[in-house]
Amino acid sequence: MTFIDQWLRPDIKNISAYHVPKSKNLLKLDAMESPFGIPQDQKDEFLKYIDQSEINRYPDAELTQLKDTLRALMDIPEEFEVLLGNGSDELIQLLALACNKDDLIMSFEPSFVMYEMVSKYAHLNYCGVKLDSNFDINLSKTLQTINTKKPKLIFIAYPNNPTGNAFDYDSIIEIIRTTDALVVLDEAYYAYSDKSFLSEILNYSNLVVLRTISKIGFAGLRLGLLIGSKETIIQLNKLRLPYNINTLTQASANFLLQDRQQILKNAQLLIEERQRLFDELSMISQLKVFPSQANFLLVQSEEAQSLHSSLIKNGILVKGFAAKSDLTRFIRITISEPNENNTLIAAIKDFYG
Ligand SMILES: *Cc1c(COP(=O)(O)O)cnc(C)c1O
Description:
It is a single chain. The protein has about 350 residues and is of the alpha/beta class. It has 2 domains: about 5-30 and about 260-350, Aspartate Aminotransferase, domain 1; about 55-255, Aspartate Aminotransferase, domain 2 (3-Layer(aba) Sandwich), CATH 3.40.640.10. Helices cover about 35% and strands about 15% of the residues. It has helices at about 5, 10-15, 45-50, 65-75, 90-95, 115-120, 140-150, 170-180, 230-235, 245-255, 260-280, 305-315, 340-350, and strands at about 25-30, 80-85, 105-110, 125-130, 155, 180-185, 205-210, 225-230, 290, 295-300, 315-320, 330-335. The strands form 2 sheets. Strands 2-8-7-6-5-3-4 form a 7-stranded mixed β-sheet, with helices on both faces. Strands 1-11-12-10-9 form a 5-stranded mixed β-sheet, covered by helices on one side. Strand 3 (about 105-110), helix 6 and strand 4 form a beta-alpha-beta unit. Helix 4 (about 65-75) runs parallel beside helix 10 (about 245-255). Pyridoxal-5'-phosphate binds near residues 157 and 188.
């Protein structure tokens, strides 16, 4: 037995590390990244701005400017407070840290894998309520689970990853009303979705909204935000590590997020491409394409596993699911700009001959 084997908390040995597939030289359509980088005509000014950063000093701890930038970008009302994380993943972990020993975290199945992983890291119980055949919330089963298992924290991805749909709004309201749990509406894909729960924070003291800039073009900066009432955020903020948002992320975001029009325009283009890709792929009889409110499409196919590997052979990486997963007959495709989408469409058409 190695030292670490006898030293480590036993349950950690059974956790498998978060897997990131190799993507070198592949067209990357697996992780909901935006295809749009920093506009060429902004690069010089951007570098000049970054150059003013004092790397020898700790980052701004108050994060005032960055919070104001995010408030302006996302129309966050004055009366709400904002907590920033090194990616929204860090905030998911922070919320788990706020739970008590033996508490239960609830979410849905299938949904974002980090909810369950973070529950395990924090040594908490986890329960994923199965979605119905349209990947919507089964309300009676959900309310029953809330009633019997009394979750402390409920994560609802809205729109959901990896299915792409936005759950029924009224069902979510019913859940928020019923439960004593803190309900986290994870709006990572807010920019591609028709509706948001942001304004509902005024109506429900147990509601917070989680967002990120990862899916709107800035995954490399690692910046997420939790939005809630002042009372709620002031308490949760105690669990944030000091200086968790580094100086370069702060400076980059302050500069790049000013261009709200460009960010909205990019999102709009991806929404249009989503429709085009949906229509094109729906014409292939062997595929079932699910409606999406996000920057990706979930696609069902009997040949999902071989389609996935065939696309890799053709230089395209989409998200596949493990053979033992409920989603083994699915792939998830990130929407990109027109040229890259055309490459993907051609490769899939080729596969089906
Ligand atoms: C991608 C994603 C996140 C993670 O975002 P980061 O800010 O990059 O950590 C959170 N929630 C959902 C539902 C996501 O799909």
